[in-house]
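Posting this for the archive.
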Amino acid sequence: MAHTGIHSQPVRSCLLLVVVSVWVQQVDGVWPLPQQLDQSADRNSLSPQRFSFIYGRDSAAQTGCSVLDAAFKRYFSIIFPDFTKGSGLLMSENKSIRYTSVSSVTTVSTIVSCFVVADNLSVSEGQAVLRSVTVWGALRGLESFSQLVYQDDYGSYFINKTEIVDFPRFAFRGLLLDTSRHYLPLHAILKTLDAMAYSKFNVFHWHIVDDPSFPYQSRTFPDLSNKGAFHPFTHVYTQSDVMRVIEHARMRGIRVVPEFDSPGHTLSWGKGQPNLLTPCYKGDVPSGSFGPVDPTVDTTYKFMESLLKEVKFVFPDSYVHLGGDEVSFACWQSNPNVRTFMEKMGFGKDFTKLESFYMESIMNMTAALNRTSIVWQDVFDYRERIPQDTVLEIWKGETYQAELSRMTQAGHRVLLSAPWYINHISYGQDWRNSYAVQPQNFSGTEEQKKLVIGGEVAMWGEYVDATNLNPRLWPRACAAAERLWSDEEKTLDADLAFPRLEKFRCELLRRGIQAEPLFVGHCKHEYDGL
């Protein structure tokens, strides 16, 4: 498993157990809902003292596959939260016989993206078997398996007879964190990645810099954070911090897509990079304030090329988000040098053409670095000449169905975020709004619908820092997680989903995630992490 990317070989994992069976009533519940799930009241008892994960004899992957090795240890603790290895004691006596989880990789073949997962989980009397096409599918299957295990009032562990066939509806299931408007300490990001894995999100969109601050500590341009961060030592992400985030994510089957948004949203960049931003004018003299990146000078493009080369080196993912949204034209309009450049290029007074000129240059740079660009919808709306493999992200909420139609008709792959800006809060169960979203419900052909590759939950940081990040994200983000993973026809009824989400929220609490309540009620194991 190379450190430089989220890749692996096709995998088949088998879980074997021999147990005692009795009949009991147990509410089924896996979040997000698997494509096919059949569960009976027949239950098997489990004993942590006699439970182990091993690799199968026929497995092409053995001990040393870092992702599965770590996952087995992690999920043992998740499945048996009350078991203390030091004492070997359980809350109650449990006389079930040995339970062995065997994981097997069928073949070692070409490298595949972690976008591809599929698994089958069969829990029956005497054994459970998990078969998966990839390591990433095995991780999702282990998550499903962990949610099937439960305890009775005496602390004994059980799992019901279950058959699951599962795969994600959409390949791209993302979550955006904004670390510029408020700095999020490393532990808050890592905990978010843990919760993302529990909900089967697979892309962390790191909106790492913006107008308010530049916390990314660049090797090439150290003054960007020295002068642009809220504090040059306490409020920065060092290179080792970034590596830790990428590795923590990789071990959970999550890609890290960085966003360096320009030409707007760059005020903090200008503090550490002279002559990058456009000087604004009041009449014939500079006003002392600055606008977007100056797209009329060669030094801008040399700087961006150097920065993007570093981004490629530091972030191994094949995608990079280039932003391109909310560019104010007032400063460009006030600047005589910009106006002269516009005339020379034949742009007239149409400043969307100037932004297009800039964004096309940056997207071409990215393509030359063998990276795929993601851009906000503004870039498409300005009719820019966009490389065909560019992914477009919709963030404007009013007319996103019409935008989906236009973008896919132009042949572009699309991400939907507009209805999942969950930094917007309201009283009551607003997760139901997220749950009601139908990403492919727009006017277009079946081929167009296939170009919607997924979506993202966005948590913008104007009013969010480490104090309220987790309660605001969870379990509200879980609604979009299920919409992006599960069969839409089976998950249209929020009332039917509620008890399952309520159960999952309690599971998040037990795993140390401060997920806020859905409504009146209680959890058997309340949050005790403070």
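The two ends are 36 Å apart (CA to CA). Confidence is low (pLDDT under 50) at residues 1-27, 84-97, 105-116.
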